[in-house]
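Each letter names a residue; the fold follows as tokens. Both lines appear below:
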Amino acid sequence: MDYRGHELSANVSMLFTELPYPDRYAAAAQAGFRVVESWWPFAAPDPSVAEIDSFVRTVEVAGVSLGALNFYGGDIPGGERGVASHPDRQDQLAANVRAVVAIAERTGCRLFNLLYGQLDDRWSPSEQALCATDAIRSAASGVAAIGGTVLIDPLTKGLNGRYPLCTADDVLAVLGRLQDVDNLSMLFDTFHLGSNGVDLVATASTVDVAHVQLADSPGRGEPGSGSLPIDETLDALKAAGYQGVAACEYKPTTDTIASLAWI
């Protein structure tokens, strides 16, 4: 499935939620997607071998390619947004990197979104920044052996607690502390960046990105449901040389199949 010269993928953590999670992969394939992606699909950072086997079989049976996968982000439904910056969660992240690599080796997935984590008064901002820098470096090292890239995601102000990365400049500042690590990139999310007032077209034209996610703002619905310049942004990304997929990571304003009419 293509749009304006970009192959589209389906984020099954947000699309096809009318169905149980395992059924969404086949539903995406039936809708015409060849590539899918997901948030971390397990409750724990270190799922069992049987859980990983079941997940890999689900992807394989659906006949789709797993294009991107989130690292463990803590209790996302409970409001957490990553563990990289939290000194007391590094054992969890280390175990999760091993699980991510195990999945990547079997699925061919090579893009992995690592949420930074929210500010916590138990540590100073500088302590958390240092912890996050070390955690990102470690995660990048872990996936480097399989050709993986770690993505760093800015999130929308006001919706994600005290998450400190809100703009492209915020992410680039983090990456600037890791200039010796070559398998890191910003995740270009139109909803998060656009909601925070970032000029999407200008940023798409000037910032090197390894992955793109699409949703409109306000509302985080499908493109066309809000006011963001989605088409112009995709054109700018293409003109700048972006050749990866553009993931549909939005909350459908109707049922998922009907929401795909924008394509």
